[in-house]
Write a structure and sequence with these properties.
Blueprint: H1 2-59, H2 68-92, H3 94-103, H4 110-127, E1 131-135, H5 147-163, E2 170-178, E3 183-190, H6 197-204, E4 210-211, E5 217-218, H7 221-232, E6 236-241, E7 247-254
Parallel strand pairs: 1-2
Antiparallel strand pairs: 2-3, 3-7, 4-5, 6-7
Helix pairs in contact: 1-2, 2-3, 4-5, 5-7
């Protein structure tokens, strides 16, 4: 009898501990969502002001900016600011964004996103003496995916590649359709300092702080974010790298993500 009472008391204690753990977990999750919304809101305010200044420069109301390359930079800033604003709005209205994603099909033109990324990082690459180019076939199909997510993937990978490529190096964004493997592939590769297998593991686990040849300090969050997005899209990320021999990040996605129109069969009347 005494043993039964003791067992019952132990079960109640365990149950109470589990309930408390669940309660604390919910509090932590709620706080995390609140902090996420607060950070997005605090970024959105100055970002909106910045977009006002960008619009002012685009209007050239006080006179011409002069060299056309200045306007190219302004246009790149405008696109980047709008991308950031989209991210902020997604964080502030995450539930609505998820519902839209489910209800509405989104299409991405990879060449456009890659071109935007090259424009965005062109000045950074030039200042560091790094060649940057995108080589996307003209007939590369659109894909059924959120353009914002593909932008995040390519911007993180390209930024990392430029940071860790010394002067005189090269960074490329590539794409191909692999019908034999029933997939399409995106690649960002560089001729930079590379990584050891241990460094790759630590970076993906966000357990390493890295310093680039240009003095940039990284936390590894970029690759971890890319890995998560790619997996959520049904793909996988492969990193091929070795010290002083560059890095190739290969993203392999399911073929059925390609937005290839069904062939039209003409019906003949006899």
């Amino acid at each position: 009898m005494g043993r039964h009472v003791k067992t019952k008391s132990t079960l109640k204690a365990v149950e109470a501990a589990m309930e408390e753990a669940i309660r604390l977990k919910k509090i932590a999750e709620t706080r995390c969502v609140q902090m996420q919304a607060e950070v997005a809101h605090d970024i959105k305010n100055p970002l909106t002001a910045m977009m006002g200044h960008i619009s002012f420069l685009q209007s050239e109301i006080l006179g011409s900016l002069g060299d056309k390359r200045y306007m190219s930079s302004v246009l790149s800033l405008d696109k980047s600011a709008k991308r950031l604003l989209e991210i902020c709005n997604t964080l502030l209205h995450e539930k609505d964004a998820e519902e839209k994603l489910v209800s509405g099909k989104k299409i991405t033109r990879v060449s456009n996103v890659a071109g935007e990324i090259v424009d965005l990082f062109a000045v950074m690459a030039k200042e560091r003496g790094v060649s940057l180019e995108a080589d996307i076939p003209k007939n590369f199909p659109d894909i059924n995916a959120d353009p914002q997510e593909m932008y995040r993937v390519l911007s993180n990978l390209t930024s990392n590649a430029i940071k860790f490529t010394p002067k005189g190096g090269k960074v490329q964004i590539l794409a191909e359709v692999d019908k034999d493997d029933n997939a399409f592939i995106m690649v960002v590769r560089d001729s930079g300092v590379g990584m050891t297998p241990e460094q790759i593991r630590d970076v993906l686990d966000m357990q390493a702080t890295t310093v680039s040849p240009h003095g940039d300090v990284g936390t590894g969050h970029g690759l971890a974010i890319v890995n998560r997005i790619v997996r959520e899209m049904g793909g996988r990320m492969e990193i091929v790298s070795s010290e002083n021999r560059g890095t190739k990040v290969k993203l392999k996605f399911p073929y059925d993500l390609l937005n290839i129109p069904e062939p039209v069969t003409e019906v003949m009347d006899f």
